[in-house]
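sry for the spam today, last one i promise. struct tokens for design, 346 residues
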């Protein structure tokens, strides 16, 4: 994949325009398709568009370290640090801690203070990784602030305004997210989710929770933003459901325990991907055509059959679950244990 260059940034937000509510006339819900299934979407269920330039710098450096963005000599040392930390494969908590620090900010000084006071529950190896990343971010900030920040800020402001504030928040969010909550059997989280766009990231869908509430990081390039947003919001909301939740995704996992675990995980994840695209098609752009990964091909009949029937109100949740899980093969039985007879015994 080619890196995102500085000269392309002013237009980079347009790569997601195919999913924006103002890119094409919105589609009226088709006959039999679900309307808002939970009434008026409560305030805590609505997203909050955000913008964090510290978060943008973090994902910019991470993108350069993985080849997603063209490397800039200005950040040579910091990119080397990110690449080395990534190669060491630290725990997920390290990356979430850095995201948290960027969201909470407010400046490079705060990052250094955070690096000197890391949580004790992190192992020594992960504490060192987090410290190196935070210090690299703080070191790169003055150069970013005097160089790339202006252009990237302008691009992100356009993304936030065109795609999140004007394009999604409002009537479109009401239609799509009421359906997601209703059909996925979800309840709103206790705090709102702030959505932070970044130009590019190798870690799309990063999320966390700070004192201000939940946050979600989405990439403004590499895919249709509206579909990506609905997809990732579904995951964040489902993961953070209260204990004992009987959400649709959890029921599929629980009731499908006899199936091959890897196939079950893929099928459930594919359902989230397909459903996000279907929400765009039903409520934003009737002619929308999603591009699905090839591995989803084996499950398409399931999504277009039982799940679509459930969305249309033709099947109950129980019937949809039965139809979806019926497409999975049972897990292979464990291989029989081989008994070795010792010489002279039997």
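last one done:
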């Amino acid at each position: 994949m080619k890196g995102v260059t500085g000269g392309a940034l002013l237009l980079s937000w347009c790569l997601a325009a195919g999913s924006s509510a103002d890119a094409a006339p919105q589609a009226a819900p088709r006959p039999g398709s679900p309307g808002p299934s939970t009434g008026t979407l409560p305030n805590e269920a609505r997203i909050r568009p955000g913008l964090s330039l510290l978060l943008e710098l973090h994902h910019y450096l991470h993108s350069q370290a993985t080849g997603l963005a063209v490397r800039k000599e200005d950040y040579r040392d910091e990119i080397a640090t990110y690449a080395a930390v990534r190669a060491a494969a630290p725990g997920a908590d390290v990356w979430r801690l850095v995201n948290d620090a960027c969201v909470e900010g407010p400046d490079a000084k705060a990052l250094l203070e955070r690096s000197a006071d890391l949580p004790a529950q992190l192992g020594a190896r992960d504490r060192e990784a987090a410290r190196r990343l935070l210090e690299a971010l703080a070191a790169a900030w003055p150069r970013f602030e005097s160089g790339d920040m202006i252009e990237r800020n302008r691009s992100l402001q356009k993304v936030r305004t065109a795609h999140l504030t004007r394009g999604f928040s409002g009537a479109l969010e009401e239609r799509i997210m009421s359906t997601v909550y209703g059909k996925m059997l979800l309840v709103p989280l206790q705090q709102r989710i702030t959505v932070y766009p970044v130009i590019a990231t190798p870690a799309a869908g990063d999320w966390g929770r700070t004192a201000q509430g939940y946050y979600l990081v989405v990439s403004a390039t590499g895919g249709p933003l509206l579909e990506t947003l609905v997809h990732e919001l579904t995951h964040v909301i489902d993961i953070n459901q209260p204990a004992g939740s009987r959400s649709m995704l959890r029921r599929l996992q629980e009731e499908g325990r006899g199936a091959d675990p890897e196939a079950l995980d893929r099928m459930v994840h594919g359902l989230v991907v397909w459903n996000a695209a279907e929400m765009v098609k039903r409520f934003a752009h009737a002619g929308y055509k999603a591009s699905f990964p090839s591995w989803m091909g084996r499950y398409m009949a399931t999504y277009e059959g039982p799940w679509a029937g459930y969305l249309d109100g033709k099947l109950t949740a129980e019937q949809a679950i039965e139809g979806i899980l019926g497409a999975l093969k049972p897990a292979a039985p464990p291989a029989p244990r081989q008994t070795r007879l010792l010489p002279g015994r039997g």
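The first helix runs from residue 9 to 12. ok im logging off now
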